[in-house]
Amino acid sequence: MTHLLDHEFEQISALAHRKWGLSIDVKKRVIVENRLQAMHREHPIDSVQSLVRTIDGGGARPLELALFDALSTNHTSFFREEEHFKLLRKEILLPAIASRKGLRIWSAGCSRGCEPYSLSALLRETVSDPKGRDNRILATDLSTGALAAARTGVYSRQDVSGVTPQRLRRYFRKVELNGAPRFQIVPELRDIVSFNLLNLLDAWPMKGPFDAIMCRNVMIYFDSPTRDALTRRFISLLRPGGLFFVGTTETLSGNDIGADQIMVGAYRKRGGGR
Ligand SMILES: C[S@@+](CC[C@H](N)C(=O)[O-])C[C@H]1O[C@@H](n2cnc3c(N)ncnc32)[C@H](O)[C@@H]1O
Questions:
Q1: How far is residue 133's CA from residue 128's CA, in Å, rounded to a whole number?
Q2: pTM recorded for the entire structure
Q3: DSSP single-letter state for residue 185
């Protein structure tokens, strides 16, 4: 498979939209072609038509996940959009210390783990005994490649370039991989994070309530009805007063979602006594 014909590209993008909510712009056609080419080495593809038919028919989970991996974007970084972490600390973490209650936070679309590990570091810096208080960070994504990297917690120098020297010393251990220096997250940050495979468009097995949910730079690839429906599901899993975050360049629809915007990309669920 080299170049995609118009109708083949349309079949792939319709499948991505149906299955995962992704809207793939026609400008990304060459990228899609290159990624399918790379995928072909491990999962030989006879034709786009048979690929789509097989995935639609179900029962080809590894193939389906490989295609998702090929089409999704995993760009992420530690403490990305740091103002969100400061808000979370002030609004949720510090009040929880006073009430001595455990916290549940969900990083939805966690990619390679930078977001949930940043949350874990924030908890460590705020709460003296994060593990002892039954604090839990749930991290989910549909990319098996990204989740595997997240679970290993090994990052390149480029990945940690935005991390302060103090945090780098405290939360990463220097390791070597194929002769190149790498930085591995320390066990104390990993202990309270659990990674799970989840398609956000499917049923969600977890129950609320969460104190905060981050779904940042994920729904940016979804169309607005999908974004709207997911936003409502996220808000319904928050406790009253809980916070919901999207990326700072994302906009939610003007419809009432049962939460008030308190910062760019940050929303507080109504009913928390404020
Ligand atoms: C650009 S990354 C954002 C990572 C992180 N939230 C951040 O802001 O740094 C988007 C992530 O969303 C995931 N994603 C996209 N569609 C998804 C879906 N339908 N279900 C689960 N994860 C999805 C991708 O695999 C990718 O890892």
A1: 9
A2: 0.95
A3: E
Residues recognised as catalytic: 35, 141
Ligand 1, from 111, 112, 222: best to mutate by most atoms within 8 Å of Cβ? 111
Per-residue pLDDT of the chain in tens (274 residues, 90 and over written 9): 668 999 999 999 999 999 999 999 899 899 999 999 989 888 888 899 999 999 999 879 999 999 999 999 999 999 999 999 999 999 999 998 878 788 999 999 999 999 999 999 999 999 867 666 789 999 999 999 999 999 999 999 999 999 999 999 999 999 998 899 999 999 999 999 999 999 999 999 999 899 999 999 999 989 989 999 999 999 999 999 999 999 999 988 777 899 999 999 999 999 876 5
Q: How many CB atoms lie within 10 A of CB 240?
A: 14
Cβ < 6 Å from ligand 1: which residues? Answer: 20-22, 72-76, 80, 109, 111, 114-115, 141-143, 146, 198-201, 216-218, 247
CA distance 268 to 274: 10
Where are the CATH 1.10.155.10 domain residues in the chain? 6-71
CA of 199 to the centre of ligand 1 (A): 10
Domain 82-153+186-269, what architecture? Answer: 3-Layer(aba) Sandwich (3.40)
